[in-house]
Write a structure and sequence with these properties.
Blueprint (H helix, E strand, L loop, with lengths): L1 H10 L11 H21 L63 H7 L31 E5 L15 E7 L8 E13 L9 E6 L1 H8 L6 E6 L2
Antiparallel strand pairs: 1-4, 2-3, 2-5, 3-4
Protein name: Flagellar biosynthesis protein FlgA
Amino acid sequence: MASGDAVSARALRPLRRPWLPRRATLLRAGLFAALLGLAAAVLHTPAGCPPGPAGSRPPPSGSSSGSPDGEPTGGAGPSGTRRPAGPGLASGEPGGSGDRSGAPGSGEQAGALDGTDGGTDPGGGEPVAGPGGRPAPLPLPSGAVGVPVRLAEPAALAVVRPGARVDLLALPPGADGTGSLLASRALVLDVVGVDALDAGAALYLALPPDQARRAVSQPEGSRFAIVVRE
C-alpha cells in the first residue's frame, strides 16, 4: 500500500521542461570562445614579421625626382628631369650666349664698323692669347674686307695689337705735309712680322668695301701711317 502511494505521488508531480540556455548566455559563451582563440593566435605568432611590399613604403621627403643614389636629376620640367639645351643655345656653342667666333649677328660683326672691339675675351677686353703669348689674330667680320698695309715706319707695329682701333693715313709719293685719311677707327685683325720690323712687316686691317678700294687704289710708292685710337 505504501509503495502504491509513492508511485501515485510521483505521478502527480508537475512535469518540468528541460533547461535551455538563454540568448545572453550564448552570446557570452561565444565572446569567451573568440577571446580564447585570439589569445591562442597571439601566443603562436612569430617574433619577427616579414616586411611589407617595397611599393607600400612612402618615398622619402624631397626625393621625388632624385636618382637611386640620392642625387637630384635636376631640371625644370614637369617630371623633375632637366631638359637638355637645344642645339646652339648653350653657352659657348654657335649662336649661344658664349659664341664669339664672328658668326652673323655676333658682337664681333657689329664691332667691325661701329667703333666697338670684337673678338676680345669677355673678362678684360683683351684679345685671346695665341702661341708664344702673343695675341691671336681676329677673324674677319662679316661685311668687312681684309687689307694688308705696310707702314712707312715699321716700328709703329710694336705698339699695335689685334683688336685695336687705328686711323689709316696715306701720303702719295713726293707729297709733303699731312696725309689723307683713308679709314677711321679701322679694326686691327693681326700684326704680321712685328718681331722682324723689316719690309715684310705689315698690318692686317678690316675695312668696309669702299675704304678698302681707296686703300688699294693708292698710287705705287705711297706711304701709309696709322694713328692708334684704342
